[in-house]
Amino acid sequence: MKKHEKIKSFDQLIEAEHGRLGTESRNQYEEGSQMFIISEMLKEARKEAKLTQEQLAEKTGTKKSYISKLENGKGNIQLSTLIRIFEIGLNKRIGLTFL
């Protein structure tokens, strides 16, 4: 527990565990966490739309295995495909924020 005694915020914890922004370790963490968020949003939106992975894939011109990979945080996704899946397949709008 001594390792984290002086940590007072989540940002400090992330830095202690994964390094400063711009380091390889931190970049990998950030990429993984963003993919996790997208995968969870995709799963939730698909279930809310009452679609199976197969139905969503058919509706968006992809494969069920691709939708499954995305929902499990295992696949890479192009922005155009992400937009197509959410906007055409799930009737959701995407907003991007750059910090």
Automatic annotation (TrEMBL):
GO annotations of cellular component type: cytosol
Single GO MF descriptor: DNA-binding transcription factor activity
Domain HTH cro/C1-type: residue ranges: 42-85
PROSITE patterns associated with the record: HTH_CROC1
Pfam families referenced in this protein's UniProt entry, alphabetically: HTH_3 (PF01381)
Signal peptide: none
Domain of life where this protein originates: Bacteria
Sorted UniProt keywords: DNA-binding
Gene3D superfamilies: lambda repressor-like DNA-binding domains
Stated name of the protein: Transcriptional regulator
Annotated organism of origin: Flavobacterium kingsejongi
